Amino acid sequence: MNVLIYLVPLALALGVAGLFAFLWCLRAGQYEDLDGAARRILSDEDIER
Amino acid sequence: MQAADYSHFVGRDAAGHAQMNLVVENVADATSISEIERGLAALPGVVRARLNYTTHRLTVAWSEEASAGAVVERLSALGYRAHPFAPRAVDEEAERARWLLRCLGVAGFAAMNVMLLSVSVWAGNVSDITPETRDLFHWLSALIALPAAAYAGQPFFLSALAALRRHTLNMDVPISLGVLLALGMSVVETALHAEHAYFDSALMLLFFLLCGRYFDHAARRKARAEAANVAALRGEFALRLDPAGGTIRVPVQALAAGDLILVPAGERIGADGVVAAGASSVSEPVVTGETLPRLVEAGAPVHAGGLNGTGALTVRVTAGGADTLLDDVQRLLDAALTGRSTYVRLADRIAAAYAPVVHLTALLSAAGWLMLGASLHDAAMIAVAVLIITCPCALALAVPAVQVVATGALFRAGLLVRAPDVLERLAGIDTVVFDKTGTLTLPEPAVRLAPGADAALLPLALRLALSSRHPLASVLARDAADGPFPDVTESPGAGISAEVDGVPARLGSLAFCGLALPSGLPATASLIGVRHGARGLVIGIDQVLRADAVEVIAALRARGLNLVILSGDRPEAVAPIAAALGIADARAGLQPGDKIAALAAMKAQGRRVLMVGDGLNDAPSLAAADVSLSPVDAAALTKAQADAEFLGSGLAPVLAAVDGARRAMRRVRENLGLALAYNLVAVPLAIGGYVTPLVAALAMSGSSILVTLNALRMANPKSAKPKSAHPEPTRPAHTGEKPPEGTR
After folding, report:
1. What whole-number distance in Å separates Cα of residue B9 and Cα of residue B250?
2. Which three-class secondary structure state does DSSP give residue B192?
3. Is residue A11 pLDDT above 60, yes or no?
4. Given the DSSP bridges, would you call strands B495-500 and B489-491 parallel, antiparallel or unpaired?
5. A45 reaches B (C-beta below 8 A)
6. Per the residue annotation, which of B200, B272, B421, B435 is the catalytic one?
7. Hey, are the CB atoms on A34 and B113 less than 8 Å from each other?
8. Which residues in chain A are contacts of B112 at CB distance < 8 A?
């Protein structure tokens, strides 16, 4: 069971990382315009020619 | 184009740049996004341009080099009409949505991680977990669950506290109690090295309930944002006369009492006021419900939303309440609002009955087990299990899930639902009361000709009408393509005459033009004659029903609803409309107070009334009815009273609203039945002591998913017509309203 000493913290760290990523997305306004994000990805204008 | 003053809409962003929000029309696809953003970025001085595709709102910021006018001009050069609007300084709705989402994120994270530990414990309990490891996992769960629940549970705890302070019970009371007891008991259990802890149940509960809360909130916010967009698209501007001379276009919101505004012929009046100079005819169907225009001259009151006829007017803006009509309406409105019985939402009614039953059941099961000789600890565990299992997870999701899906479906059908309980109230109605002008009929009268008439004379009549101030002529003049004829002579009370192409031409009463009354015109039409040499034409001016009024009324009747017309218009104008629609109960010539009395009489008979109206005179009756709808181009004060607004030029959304609400309530009842069935099965198990954390987790998620799926069945009903995600709003033009095609 010694394996738990690093597996449990690892699992929690991954979870916390996910939570902070979500909170960061929220703060950065990425949930403000969900339809727009779906459309913007189709735009080719950011590709250098 | 005249110089416009946008300063009312311009604010400052964090970096000190000028910033303005606009609603953009005809945003189509990804190309529009880049066209608009790049087009504006190329404008010197623009520092930021970001289009929100979901809401069709654009935020632009610029430094000294650019200006609001330049931004709007650039947008119109790009082919997009943009309408500035002033967002509320602090958007509480958006703030709350973000808060709920943060709580949801925290609850989700914690539920997942605690479940990870719980599953290990459950698996270990049936195999070879050591008590030390189990304790470690339980303490870890507590470490995650307690702070997470303290944060994510706030929406429920705060609401429950508020309810308790008012000495009432809402759904949040059993929720909060269930969560707190489950957590508290689990800590005690962990300290006692027990096998079971309910950390995962408490967090899962919060997660599911927050989902319901968030979706409910998001749907309502969307409807409200859309309504604000429509208001901005109508974007009223007025021409303010500067004391220095000259005029400037200002948004009507920026007008102050005492300002002088110029209202050119054919334009809408932007504010309530008194005519300072000029004479014209003004049609005010949205204000008074009267179809035909009235003559105004210096000293006469005019109302915002009225359409100026043929003469330019100078209007002195007055603050609201300066004239008797608005005063009357406001007074009646206040009375109607105070007299309105508050409707108790179904969920709250259930909660009021449910919460005591739940608490009593938990208490009784604990007492029962104690009497049977169980230890205090075991009895308390049973009580907590009962509280967890009865925590109204499915119940709290049952209603909002359906509401979200149903308001979404109605939104696509062109209906913006404003309040959360509108669907419930709509589903219960048995009587629909319509206003006539602007609701059953289009707001503006239209031209009608007898069959076989010499329609080629119509353009001549329209041009001649430009020279007359008669109210009927002003209806015609609105459609004139060319300017007025020179040298027109007016014979007071009869008509006008001029020489056109060397031949005498007349426009006026039938006698003045020497014309006979033709057959084939509706009896309600007001007649006006035109003569050009030997040719003559009789023009009828009449109200027109909304295109789909007949079918919608027939469909409403087929659903067993009583239909009533309450109109402020003349009986002669109301009777034929009622006959055409087959509505027997049509009352005409009603003052706003009479309408309220009629509604009160219906309610006294136990009827539940849906009121559909648009006029300023309807505002008090909308407030007095059980539930109310109004078209989106209704008077502002009226719309503020309506529970929902509908878009488009037809009445179909009214039918869709009734159908959608009834369908939604069927689903709600099914869901409540499911939730009840779940409780009937699960509660005896809990009382019997068979509910382990594993059973609780399965039962809770299972029932929540079941009611959500049942609600989602509504999303794609066979009867709902698919429409564009962004319904085309009706938009009264700023100049010269045209009657719709096909009415002449």
Report:
1. 10
2. coil
3. yes
4. antiparallel
5. yes
6. B435
7. no
8. 15
The CATH architecture assigned to B446-542 reads: 3-Layer(aba) Sandwich (3.40)
CA distance B349 to B340: 18
Amino acid at B334: D
The answer for residues whose C-beta is within 8 angstroms of residue B52's C-beta and 6 or more apart is A32, A33, A36, B58, B59
| pLDDT tens, residue by residue, B284-308 | 766 666 667 778 888 888 877 777 8
- Taking CB atoms and an 8 Å limit, are A1 and B29 in contact across chains? no
Q: How far apart are the C-alpha atoms of B479 and B483, rounded to whole Å?
A: 11
Q: Is A15 on the interface with B (CB under 8 A)?
A: yes
- Homologous superfamily of the B414-443+546-659 domain (CATH): HAD superfamily/HAD-like (3.40.50.1000)
Instruction: Record the tokens describing residue B283, joined without a space.
Output: 């049609």
Asked if B116 and A23 come within 8 Å (Cβ–Cβ), the reply is no
Radius of gyration of chain A (CA): 18
Beta strands B562-566 and B585-587 are parallel
| Residue at B732: amino acid letter | P
Q: What is the mean pLDDT of residues B102-111?
A: 93
The class that CATH gives domain B234-322 is mainly beta
Helices (H) and strands (E) in chain B, counts: 23, 27
Instruction: Retrieve residue B279's tokens.
Output: 């004479």
Task: Give the tens place of pLDDT for each residue, B414-447.
Answer: 888 877 678 888 888 999 999 887 788 887 777 8
Total number of residues shown for chain B: 744
d(CA B506, CA B423): 56
Nearest to B54 among A15, A19, A33 (CB): A33
Domain boundaries, chain B: 1-87, 91-207, 234-322, 414-443+546-659, 446-542
- C-alpha B692/C-alpha B682 separation (Å) is 12
Q: Pairing state of beta strands B609-612 and B431-434?
A: parallel
d(CA B323, CA B82): 34
| CATH, domain B1-87, list 1.10.1020.10, 3.20.20.70, 3.30.70.100, 3.90.740.10 | 3.30.70.100
Q: How far apart are CA B245 and CA B406, in angstroms?
A: 54
User: pLDDT tens, B575-599?
Assistant: 888 888 888 888 888 877 888 889 8
